[in-house]
Amino acid sequence: MTSKYLFICLAAFAAALLMLGCNHYDDPTEEQTAPISTNISIAELRRLVGEKALPIEQELIIGGYVTSSDEAGNFYRTFTLEDATGGVEIMAGMYDLHNLYPEGHYVVVKLSGCVAAIHEGVLQVGRAAKSYSIYPTDYFASRQALDKHIICYDVKGEVVPSAQSIGSLKDELCGRLVKISHLTLCSAEHAGAWEVNCEGRWTGYNLFCDGEGREIAVFTSEYANYAEQEIVAGEVALTGILHRGVVDGEEYYMIKMRDENDCQILD
Q1: CA distances (Å), 54 to each of 40, 90, 215, in order?
Q2: pLDDT tens, position by position, 222-237
Q3: The model's pTM
Q4: Which stretch of DSSP H or E encloses residue 205?
Q5: 3-class secondary structure for 91-124?
Q6: Which helix (H) or strand (E) holds 20?
């Protein structure tokens, strides 16, 4: 074997090793095989959790389709998924989750070693919170931890929000993607509340009411790419992940939209 040929072979071998060693950090964690079986529904997990954070030691597995996206910046280091029974927020602790767990893809979560809790009405799955934390769960916070517990499959389903009215909302719907129609902006009625945005922009808290005067809050992060856009006047339908929170001293059901398209103008 000539020295020139040997050099070419060694160079090709080194290039192959380099390709194998590359870490495609932003690639979706998709499995091409059939999804593994679940053995507990999201609603059953919610009932198990109750009022306190629950460390999970059993080999429990939930699954569902991704219903949120952080692409517009209104979701921060978490994503949501739901099955036919309920919704859950995964405390991923990473950025650009819409690349790792795209909306509409099927995800399975292995719960052994995780902690589940309910926060602002929403069932969360993550790690145990620090002793000094005011929150019931903590982020997974690393790709290795996510890959240990979470598998995203190349199986897609249509993400259809549950049609609701303000009067039909209940805690069991928190964490799910909902759509509420025939709402109008009424933030001006809470002009004295510092956390309510009465300037007609999305950022912060806004309140919408239905024809019967019932109200629902909408939260928009200041980091959302539509935060400074003006809210359209007139009747709208709002879509987003449902949770609970306090605005102007009162507890409300709240919607967190995925992007500005989750506000639909009605004729």
Answers
A1: 15, 15, 32
A2: 999 999 999 999 999 9
A3: 0.88
A4: strand 204-209
A5: CCCCCCHHHHCCCCEEEEEECCCCEEEEECCEEE
A6: helix 3-21
Environment class of residue 162 by beta-carbon count within 10 Å: exposed (0-12), middle (13-18) or buried (19+)?
A: middle
Rounded Cα gap, residues 217 and 253, in angstroms: 6
Residue position matching structure tokens 């003006």? 230
Among 231, 220, 222, 224, which residue's Cα sits nearest to residue 184? 231
Pairs from 141-148 (Cβ < 8 Å, separation ≥ 24): 141/93, 141/94, 142/93, 143/25, 143/94, 146/29, 146/92, 146/94, 146/100, 147/29, 148/110, 148/113
CATH number of 30-156: 2.40.50
Give domain limits for the chain: 30-156, 162-265
Q: Which amino acid is residue 95, in one-letter code?
A: Y
Whole-number CA gyration radius for the chain? 22
List, for residues 99-115, the tens digit of each pLDDT value: 999 999 999 999 999 99
Q: How many Cβ atoms sit within 10 Å of the Cβ of residue 133?
A: 10
Domain boundaries 162-265, corresponding CATH code: 2.40.50
| Strand pairing category for 115-119 and 79-82 | unpaired
